[in-house]
Specification:
By secondary structure, the chain is of the alpha+beta class. Helices cover 52% and strands 18% of the residues. The longest helix has 56 residues.
Amino acid sequence: MNKLIRMIIRIILVGAISVCVQGTCRADFEDLGVGARPIGMGNAYTALADDVNAIYYNPAGLAQLDECQFTSGYGKLYWGLDDGSNLGSGFIGYAHPLYHWGTLGAGWVNFGLQGLYRENSFIFSYGNRIRTRLLAGLNLKLLHKKYGKTTYTENALIDGGPGVTGERDPVFSEGYSKTGFSTDLGFLYKFNREYSLGLSLIDINQPNMDLKDNKSKVPIGVKSGFLYNSDFLTFAFDTTFRNGDVNVHSGVEKWFANRTFAVRAGLGVGSRSFSNLALGASYTKYLFQFDYAFLYPLSGIRDTYGSHRISLTLRFAPEKEEKKKAREERLAKIAAEKAAREELAKIKEKEAKLIEERRKIELARNYYREAIEVYRNGLYSEALGKLRFAVELDPKRPEIQDLFKKLSSIVDVISKETGLEREAELIRSGVSYYIEDKPRKAITTLQYAFEHAPKNKEIPRLLNVLKREYPAIAEQEKISAGMTLVEQKMYRALNYLYEDRSDLAIVECQEVLELEPNNTLALSRLGSAYYVIGQKEKAKELWLKVLEIEPENKEVLESLRKEGIIPPKKKPKAPSRREEMKKEFEKSQRYYRRVENNLDIDGKIELLQSIIDKFKPSRMDVSGLERELRELKKEKEKEKIKAQQEKKETKAPKPALPPEVKVPSEEKVISTREKMEQKFSEALSDYKKGDYNGAIAKWEEVVKVRSDDAELKELMEKAKARIAKTKEKKIKEMKKHYTKAVAYYKKRRWEDAITELEEVLKLEPEHKQSETLIKRIEEKIWLTAQEERKKKMDEYYNAGLTYFQNGEYEKAIAQFERVLNLEPIHLQAQRLIKEAKEKAKK
């Protein structure tokens, strides 16, 4: 490539020097070009010159010919001139290879204006290969021009006046024609089959072709050219230096249908506003080639239909078989390489898709596992959010779809259950049984929970979900009127024992013990069931456990005596209340540590506070939890200040109540009146602060005592009116923020949309539409981040693949490691890193 650049620079320098050293004026034998094929390429033919037209453009190109060629062409120049001028140009050429002795050529170039002027150039050419890559050629030219006799040439004008002399014009005093000899020299350097450089020196001897002025000469011309020539496309570029003018020509050619049909185009620009556009085409049949070119001036001569050229070329021998075969082999090789590249691209695409599928499946599994862990801790809404990502990544996985369906049903009823009380534990267990396809246990657990928390509104709704999905099982587990769940199961177990169906009795007793592990009746009847089926040791073990809990159980004592077992006289030491409380405290702490990473700061504060409130009165050491709670509250306060959401209201500490003193009934009445007055004052204060709901609640307590107070009722009506007005204002504000959020969502301005939705939630924390839209936006943000991550990953992977193929293994490893930073399970990157390290060692 450096050699090519140096060669181009030398050619340009030679041309520039040649132009600088000559000072002739240009008039005769203009370079109009010959042959429709070269002209169709904008006369950019110096480095191509691969046919008989090389006689005119670069005689060195004749050495490329393998067969005799003849061409004949004619051109109608500047068709449509106003004065009706008929300008024409023709060319006839013949080239004859002498094999190892080079190639001879002869040509005739004609240009003329009918009846007024004519130029003829007779060219004798020779070209040969003087080195493997270097070709040279020489032209000997006979130049002749002739003017026609007219009234103007035979009757000269008087100098300085309108009259005529009646004599011949002095310019033609020595005749109407002139003949001269000229020489051209051409070189062609072929770097390979595709790249070439050409140089042509025109009219080196600068012949004098003026009729009378012996000082005027035909100026020397220098043409330099560059060529790229493949089986698919030819591109040529020429620079011409002549008489101080610099013109640039470029052309392109494309053959089709096994070199049967061709199209070409060219452009020329240069000094003195020179510019033209060329178009051309060719058709080849047997030994004949027909060419057409159209040349249109973009500046200078205007209002013409352009110049039109046609030529016919005859090759006296068909294309050599080995040359044709070599071209076909090249084309087949290129086609095979293209097919291989396409196949490789398909394989890579398939491999990339496979890797992407594996990555998605692995990510979906991770989200699925996380969702399971999260829902078991009672965070159902968060688990559903993770499952949405899993469904998006792997929508065909049945277990993911099944879990998503069940969690959706649960979240419609309850978003989370993180309480520490027995009721919350039972709800979590019931939901887990439902999701794990244990509907019987799920129904019984939730029924038991509802018996212990009849005011809980969510448990019946959860039971309805189960009843809709498992109606037959729900009917079987329906509790009879007047019985509890445990009583019914114990009744069933007893009946099964009477019916000698101990296996079913065992099931009923075990289900009770899962709910109440220390239920002595269930332990006793379970022991009896095992005893009936012959598992006496297991029965004795269960009966002894009953005695640990209830030492005076007569039924168990009688059963043991029948078996000859004397029960221990020493009563087992029952675990103290403090020990039980300590175990429960440790269990609550473990639960908090398990779920804290999945809770927001409010959830953490709420759960910690409930643990402290529950166990601090039992004198458990909650100091560590209190410190953690204080830190969380400080963190929350900082977030509030930073976000400028709201300022924390500081409330004055309430005065300590005096110790309760027993007083006569009269004093109690006075105390009640004072309390009502205090309630009234507090309600009035709440009213002034805008806490109308609080005010109404307190006034309603006062109304129970002062039911006839008209002023109080009026104040309550005013408060209700204020509440209605505030509610209406709140709804308007919510609608405004929500409408903005939807507009931002449609414009993909996710952050702005979330900001507006958070404003809605400040006004109405339970606004389901806003919560749903926020979840949807978070999914969109996540998917956008994933797409960006994949784009980066592909960029690093392709860069690494390029380095790997070029043998730059260290750089390849660096790129593949960047892939693994984004996707640690990228199998292809791992494999290529291993291969690159092995190759780097070699």
